[in-house]
Every structure is written in C-alpha cells, then in structure tokens.
Automatic annotation (TrEMBL):
Species annotation: Pseudomonas zhanjiangensis
Protein name according to UniProt: DedA family protein
Pfam families from the UniProt entry: VTT_dom
Phylogenetic classification of the source organism: Bacteria, Pseudomonadati, Pseudomonadota, Gammaproteobacteria, Pseudomonadales
Isomerase listed as a keyword: no
PANTHER family (UniProt xref): ALKALINE PHOSPHATASE LIKE PROTEIN, INNER MEMBRANE PROTEIN YOHD
Length: 192
C-alpha cells in the first residue's frame, strides 16, 4: 500500500487525531493531499476545526482540574505557563484565539488558561474562533504548496510520493531539532 493510498483511506481520521494533538504537520499534508485530489479541502478544514477545538478544550479542562498536579509532574512546563499567565493579563481574548499559533504553547497554553480564572464559556467561544482561523490557514498552506509544486513540475503525479516523503521527512527533522534545542535551553537554564 502506498503512502498516498494510506492518506486517501485514512486521511480524514489522521486529520482529526492530529488536530486533537498538535496537528500542523498532518494538516499541512492533508492540504497537500487535497490539492492532489485525495481529500476534500473544505472537509479537511471542518474536521481539523472540530478536532482542534475539542483537543484544546480537553487541555483547558485538564488544566482546570489537574493543573497544579500536572505542573508538579512536568516542572519544565512552568516557564511556559508563567509566560501564558503574563500574556493572558495583557491580551486575554487574543491569547485564547492565538495560542494554537504560538510555538511551544499549543498544549501548555490551554492547560495554563484552564488554570486561570477564564470562564469555560469564554474559552469555548474564543477557542472555536481560533480553530476556525487555524484550520483553513494551515490546510491552505499545504494546498498552495501543492499548487506551487504543480506550477514547478507539470507532471507532479509522477513525483508526489517523493514530495510527500520529503515533506514528512522535513517536518520530522524540524520537530526533532526543535526538541533538541528546547532541551539544550532547558539544561542551560537549570545550570544557571
């Protein structure tokens, strides 16, 4: 079974699960797959919006219920939680909408907001708005990346397996490098 066939068969499920977690990579690939005709871009956006909303809502409720114990278990989150608290004081609604776009705060952000005094209804409203902006934007980047490649390579179908593999490899390498750099910064801050 080819990578493109897997994407066509399980793409919508992957978009939903990816959006529940930290779905940028999956959503970019789904946008690219939509350009290639394997998935429907509007359906990808709706599924990602629902998954992203539910995922961040779950993180918010985890923060509301178990925030302090999560911080004891994961003390490395503390600087990011403090940063969210500071931003929340200045940019209340904007932070809730934009936290899914902020590097390093996609999971910790909603948890920290849940630990604050933000009412659940307010988080739901702005979380939904943020997901409604995030899903088409990220999927659209993947879609337009496919369009750009199509302009560059007239016979894109012939190269699509390689392009998908290159995209996945690039994202994996990027994610690993981000985590390595984050660990080094955390280790350096502990030594200080």
């Amino acid at each position: 079974m080819s990578l493109t066939q897997l994407l066509a068969d399980y793409g919508y499920l992957a978009v939903f699960v990816g959006a529940l977690l930290e779905g940028e990579t999956v959503l970019l690939l789904a946008g690219f797959a939509a350009h290639q005709g394997y998935l429907s871009l509007p359906l990808v956006c709706v599924i990602a919006m629902v998954g992203g909303t539910l995922g961040d809502q779950a993180y918010f409720l985890l923060g509301r219920r178990y925030g302090e114990s999560l911080l004891r278990r994961f003390p490395r989150w503390l600087p990011r939680v403090r940063r969210v608290e500071q931003l929340l004081l200045r940019y209340h609604a904007g932070l809730i909408v934009g936290v899914r776009f902020m590097y390093g705060l996609r999971v910790v952000g909603p948890i920290a907001i849940g630990m604050s005094g933000v009412p659940v209804w307010r988080f739901v409203l702005f979380n939904l708005l943020g997901a409604a902006l995030w899903a088409p934007l990220v999927a659209g980047v993947g879609y337009f990346f496919g369009q750009t490649l199509h302009w560059l390579f007239a016979d894109l179908k012939r190269y699509e397996e390689w392009v998908l593999l290159a995209i996945v490899s690039g994202v994996v390498v990027h994610s690993l490098l981000r985590r390595l750099l984050r660990r080094r910064r955390e280790q350096a801050s502990r030594k200080e």
